[in-house]
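Ticket #4471: structure export looks truncated?
Reporter: QA, pipeline team
Priority: medium

Steps to reproduce: submit the single chain below to the structure queue and open the exported record.
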Amino acid sequence: MKLEFFIVFLVLWVLLIFFFSSQSYSEQNLTPYLAILLSDSSLDKVFSSIQFTYAGREISVSNLGIVHFIEFFIRKAAYLFVFFVLGSLSWLVSTRIWKSKVIAAIVAAFFIFLYACLDEIHQHYTSGRSSLVEGVLLDTCGGILGIVTCLVVFRMKKRNT
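Actual output as written to the record:
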């Protein structure tokens, strides 16, 4: 496919991330819906033994309650997903510019890291949002997973042809 095609999708995806990062936490709050869905569940017992620290904050059912605990994982999974797609698109653009897949992967990973940093800075200036180093790490990991997935899929595809 043509470079321009992938650039358009990359730009659209970057704009989508920017749009979601421009929303306050209250605009993205899932807890009212989760409270309804989880009202009769016994998930609090299932997840009661899970406890860890994220950004200096204890993440556990006993500390957050089951609704906020589940919301935490949904929100982090969403970040992983959107940056996974961004990493994949970045790699697809990079491979059409640089012949070496390794250089393309390095350039795409650098772009992901840079955009993750810029996204956290943007969130710092968005009402009700926080800017965290952990956010940059999570976003970058999602992007690198996308790049690695593309490398593996295209290598497998090349072997099968």
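Status: closed, not a bug. The export was complete when the record was re-opened. Leaving a note from the reviewer for reference: The beta strands are 51-54, 57-60.
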